[in-house]
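input
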Amino acid sequence: MDRLHRKNISLLTAGEIELYLRTGEPTAEEIAQLCADGRKSVQEIVRRFLQHRKKLQQEEDCLHNMSGMERTLQEQGYAPVAGVDEAGRGPLAGPVVAAAVILGAESEPFWRKIRDSKQLSPQKREELFEALMSGGSSISVGVVQAETVDRINIHNASLEAMRIAVQKLQPEPVFVLSDGYSIPGLVIPQRAVKKGDSCCISIAAASIIAKVTRDRLMRDYEDLYPGYGFAQNKGYPTAEHREALKMMGPAPIHRRSFKLI
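output
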């Protein structure tokens, strides 16, 4: 863009303005000029630009807030810090799965998208799972099968899956942030964070890894034990799942300690 157009951006065509807003760094003065532009096409372009910029700023603010615990611990000399979460407490069938995640040293662009897995669509979870797996993070998973859930109860099984995930993690973390509960059997300093998957970025990342890993396992179980709808319900007590239990009885991966019907 030449100096004349920099002084009066409204001299540009709508197409040139859209390209500039997408690739350049418009000043506050230029944005003000465009907001006063009488062309409807320009107004729509500016509206989309401002909406997109607002969304990016909200994501940046959210990232800053969600990474506060890790940042504080690192400033205190704790590095690396791992976040831990689990998936699969409520289903009638299948394992409980936990993940431990040490995010990479540098903030990746996709970090702005990380949220509690329950707040994300299946497609977004899959996209973030792949980004995390290839984005320089250290990741491990712990799996506790249904028979162990029956033997030690779901709460203890969830904690055991989290312990396994942490102990498999390389490099070994020097501090652990866990969702909701302290993890027994760890000598590493740790902190249980209430609703950690919604306020702590490494725990939220772990929630995504755990959820997607478990969902994929349940889709595999659909092939082994057809008829229960595991690919769709992931073992949760939907009406269709309960009806299948009435008709077929439990599969080997059902949790007998749960009220199945």
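quick obs: DSSP finds eleven helices and five strands in the chain.
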